[in-house]
Design goal:
By secondary structure, the protein is α/β, with parallel strands linked by helices. The protein is 35% helix and 24% strand. The chain has 8 helices and 13 strands. It has a 5-stranded mixed sheet with strand order 4-3-5-13-6, with helices on one face. Strands 8-12-7-11 form a 4-stranded mixed sheet. Helix 5 links the parallel strand 3 and strand 4. It is elongated and about 90 Å long. The relative contact order is 0.14.
């Protein structure tokens, strides 16, 4: 018999609510969809489960028998499924600058699904997706690397980071084009600023290379060069040897929440979708 679990859930909702309208609200289904599910169940069983009239919907004797048998089974199944989710963890990798709003979303996700969310710092090109440490990752790159799928959470402007000992630190504003004449500190693993972002023939030289945000900040502080980062860095990171100067004419930084295109954690796409739907909230 072609009976799906959804058919039985629809049947129980109508039986317990005493009608299609209330059951539809409970299941968030339209009445035509709910009616089709009940009809499919009745056709598969070859019996009528409800007596319908313009005024009311009542269970037949066969319907009452099915309700008595199925209701405890569905409750037991739901309880088992909830127990299976307990202790499950969704790991989200990041290299630096985790948005505060993402933590709020993670807490709400855990309450709704029973799946805990952990944030782990991974200084790798894909923030842990490439090593298997993370199920999802906050990536600031465009386009996303091959083999990854994700949602664009937000875009934000850049700010310039210059050594506090340089006269340049006294400026109230810098232009993107001016940076081409200065040595650039390049974070080769998780950075967002590289010489090829300037036109050929007017690209900055590389003053130093590093592999994470902390090293990048220290190399700017000792005067090896300048760098740029999203403006959220000004709120999350400070260093007495680094001065942050507003930057004009610079390309924005895109932040994605990404997961593998194939073989991803079953909850990864669900969390990413909820994050995308929450973009109206202040994530940065």
């Amino acid at each position: 018999m072609n009976i799906d679990l959804r058919h039985l859930r629809c049947f129980l909702a109508v039986a317990e609510e005493g009608g299609f309208t209330a059951a539809g609200r409970r299941l968030h289904l339209t009445q035509p969809t709910l009616t089709r599910n009940i009809r499919t169940l009745e056709d598969s069983l070859g019996v009528r489960l409800f007596e319908r009239s313009t005024r009311r919907t009542e269970l037949t004797d066969k319907g009452k028998t099915l309700q008595e048998a199925v209701a405890p089974l569905i409750r037991q199944l739901d309880s088992t499924l909830v127990d299976l989710q307990k202790g499950e963890k969704l790991r989200i990798g990041f290299s630096w600058g985790l948005p505060e709003g993402l933590s709020r979303l993670a807490a709400r996700f855990g309450e709704e699904t029973g799946v805990g969310v952990e944030f782990i710092r991974c200084d790798t090109p894909q923030a842990g997706l490439d090593t298997g440490e993370a199920h999802l990752a906050l990536l600031r790159s465009a386009p996303l690397p091959k083999g990854l799928r994700g949602v664009l959470l937000y875009e934000e402007p850049r700010i310039a980071a210059v050594p506090a000992s340089w006269r340049l630190a006294e400026r109230t504003e810098l232009d993107w084009a001016e940076l081409s004449e200065l040595p650039l500190i390049v974070n080769t693993v998780s950075g967002t600023t590289f010489p090829d972002m300037w036109p050929a023939g007017s690209r900055p030289v590389v003053g130093a290379e590093c592999r994470n945000f902390d090293e990048w900040l220290e190399q700017v502080a000792v005067g090896l060069g300048v760098g740029t980062a999203p403006v959220s860095a000004a709120r999350r990171y400070t260093h007495p040897g680094v001065h942050l100067v507003p930057l004009t004419g610079a390309p924005t930084v895109r932040a994605y929440l990404a997961h593998p295109s194939h073989g991803a954690h079953p909850q990864a796409a669900r969390f990413a979708d909820q994050a995308w739907r929450a973009v109206d909230e202040p994530l940065v």
